[in-house]
Amino acid sequence: MTTRKVESIPVIDRPISDKKVSGIGDFLGLYGGEHIAATEFVFGATLVGWGCPATTILLGLLIGNLLAVLSFTFCTATIAVDTRLTLYTYLKKILGGPAQKLYSCVWGICSIILAGSGICVATTAIREVFGLEIQQEWYPTSAGFVIIALVLGCIVTFVAANGFDAVAKFSTTCVPWMITIFFVGAVVALPQLAEATGVQISSAADIWDVFNSNVGSGSGNPDAEKISIFHVICFAWLCNLAWHMGLNDMALFRFAANYKYGFITSIGMFVGHFFAWIMVAIMGAAAAALLGTSLTLLDPGAVTNTVFGLTGICAVVVAGWTTANPTIYRSALSLNVVLPKLTHKQVTYVVGGLMTILACFPAMTNIGNIVQILGWSVVGVGAICIMEHFIFPKIGFMRHWALYKKMTANWAAIITWAVSVIFVLVMLRTGALHNNFIFIPEYIISSVLYIVLAALMGARGDYSKEEAEELEFQKELKTYVDQQAEEEMRKGEETVVVKATGFIKVAKPVSYVILAAIVITAMMVFAGAMAVETYKTLAIILTVIYFILNGLATFAKYKNETVHR
Fold first, then answer.
1. Helix, strand, coil proportions of the chain in percent (round to 5)?
2. How many angstroms separate the Cα of 321 from the Cα of each of 264, 315, 329, 551?
């Protein structure tokens, strides 16, 4: 270990410098943009088919998303800030090189599929604009659908290729509008749903009755799956399992000033996976009632266009972009481990190309199954890392013992991961556990098995000398990384810092006034003071104005700040 030179460590394997940490605003934009996004149009619609009361849905989502926030904060963010590494680099210390590359390939491919799903969902919206038919097959039956997917994929790839900063800035503009649109979408949908079902809304109690009878309790569907609050809790917790208990969001949280930034995920969990799901459920129920068809036969584009017009279509498109952007950013980081000779930007273009091809296939809109598979496939590895990072020091085991023992592969970890995947396959094949519950025993089995196998294979050994050498090397590497960061900042720093222009100072506040106008006019529709069709036209005009003002102001501010490359 002592013969290693810090200069020889590939950039992808180096911790980031503390000088490159990002502010809270970037994380608000990222977690708002990614989780108030395309998946919400799919998951929100699933609530309509659940055979449980609305109160069970609301309470279950509340608890499940709280568990997700705590997992993000005390698992992912804590380890990321402690190490300043991506999971894909950290795994080399735990799994060994070959298994690390295998995991990086698995996660990279899964992320490409997820990103492709986000773009495919966005494509369903633009399909509505051009009057293309809903894609009912798993393969595309329309050349126009394919062309739309290709164009959207290219745009997302270009944005993601420009790195963390570009991804965060792109999301910052979208998030306030997305929150507004989910809310007003439901406000406008409620009276349409009430009219279609012959119900009068004259009080808050009436709103609840409409919600409970047309969204909760299976919406009158006798074949609706009867589920409990525990199913709902685990559903909400499972949806981001790969990113929190699976630790893949270390890629983002390594830029956090401290682990408490993990609480920022609340904007994604409670605004996106609570508030937005419920709003979309209302929109979905309204669209199905208005069109006189089953919600299962409608795609997100059809739902939003029916109740909200072009503004709803824009919401699906923007949501698809903000889902795919950080997803392929992570995917490129993961695959960069396997392709170290390529730059991150080059890998991103490769990843983006594959994502774009997959987005052409309508089967990719089945994002629920994709997210579940992601969680099941990586939670075993997440359990291994969490045990090693937090539990091993408390029970007398050595962190990174396989590294100190100079093992090419940590067979305790590899066997544990394999067992976790086999367990999932057995559960799916036999149906012994509901899909929403599988990850809990999978995590417990992985944690216990790894502790036992690690104890048998050498984790309790004395590696104090090797640990001291490694800590000294990491200290040297940290100093080197900080020096490199300072040099980059000096080279990239502009000689003149341009202060915020009058345009920036005015455009941002005005853009928020525009958002307020979208909300106020939606309330007029709810009160019967404005026709739905009139609102659809007005909302798209206000939306265009918002993006012009807020987008240009964000871009101008970004360009006028002191640049550190």
1. 75, 0, 25
2. 21, 10, 12, 15
398 and 156 Cβ atoms separated by less than 8 Å: no
Give the relative orientation of helices 277-291 and 163-196 as an angle to the nearest 10 degrees.
40
Backbone dihedral angles phi then psi of residue 461, each to the nearest 5 degrees: -70, 170
Q: What is the largest CA-CA distance in the chain?
A: 78
Q: Against a cut of 0.85, is the pTM above it?
A: no
- Per-block average pLDDT, block size 10, for the chain (565 residues)? 68 80 78 68 68 84 95 95 89 87 84 84 80 78 88 81 60 81 88 80 76 63 74 90 89 90 91 84 82 74 82 81 74 80 83 89 75 83 95 94 92 95 93 92 96 95 90 86 74 50 76 94 91 92 91 70 42
CB atoms within 10 A of CB 15: 19
Torsion of CA 199, 178, 161, 118, to 10 degrees: -10
Only one residue has tokens 């080059």, namely: 346
Per-residue burial over 203-233, b if 16 or more Cβ lie within 10 Å, else e, is eeeebeebbeebbbbbbeeeebeebebebbb
Q: Which amino acid does the sequence have at 24? A: I
pLDDT score, position 452 = 97
Nearest CA to 312 among 356, 273, 282?
Answer: 282
Cα-based distances in Å from 110 to 29, 253, 372: 24, 20, 11
Q: In whole angstroms, what is the distance from residue 30 CA to residue 259 CA? A: 16
- What are the distances in angstroms from CA 144 to CA 309, 442, 459, 508? 20, 43, 57, 36
Place of tokens 């997302």: 156
> What is the CB-side half-sphere exposure of residue 345 using CA atoms within 13 A?
6
